[in-house]
User: Which sequence fits this backbone?
């Protein structure tokens, strides 16, 4: 059995805890290990906060969250209609197969991932260690098993997608295998 849901949310701060609570409730009901659920909830919160902060577009004030639990894998995708990630973010090096970054036609500087390493070769943001820009994407990379940052071709906007292998409680309703 699998669980799939999609949300169309307004680009406002109150949407972030809403998405997180829906994910946590789904994970709890399905029987996912609480530690794994927490890690996914933090990663989702960071991706949603990025969409709220950087996904500005004059056509729409919304972003989309899609999540799927299928077998032992959870896949989450957050898409915003903004200008997309800067080229430095989407073209940064792949770390041991953990992160994949792909530039679409809209991969221009100053987009959704502003402050995520643009201008220094795609590495961690320059500046003092207390700088906050770019930490959310790094946190997602740390918490998930596979992460992909890319820009939507033609229509514009940033996409953050990530996967995590699930662990189950003993009393899980959907335990795979």
Assistant:
């Amino acid at each position: 059995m699998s669980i799939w849901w999609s949300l169309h949310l307004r680009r406002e701060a109150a949407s972030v805890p809403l998405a997180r609570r829906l994910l946590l409730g789904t994970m709890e009901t399905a029987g996912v290990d609480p530690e794994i659920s927490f890690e996914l909830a933090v990663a989702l919160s960071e991706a949603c906060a990025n969409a709220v902060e950087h996904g500005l577009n004059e056509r729409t004030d919304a972003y989309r969250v899609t999540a799927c639990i299928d077998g032992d894998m959870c896949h989450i995708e957050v898409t915003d209609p903004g200008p997309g990630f800067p080229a430095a973010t989407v073209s940064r090096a792949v770390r041991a197969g953990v992160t994949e970054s792909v530039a679409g036609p809209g991969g221009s500087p100053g987009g959704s991932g502003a402050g995520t390493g643009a201008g220094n070769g795609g590495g961690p943001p320059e500046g003092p260690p207390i700088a906050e820009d770019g930490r959310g994407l790094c946190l997602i990379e740390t918490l998930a098993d596979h992460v992909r940052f890319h820009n939507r071709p033609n229509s514009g906007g940033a996409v953050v997608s990530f996967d995590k292998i699930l662990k189950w409680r003993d009393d899980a309703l959907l335990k795979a295998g």
In short: The mean pLDDT is 80. The beta strands are 2-10, 62-70, 73-79, 99-102, 146-151, 158-165.
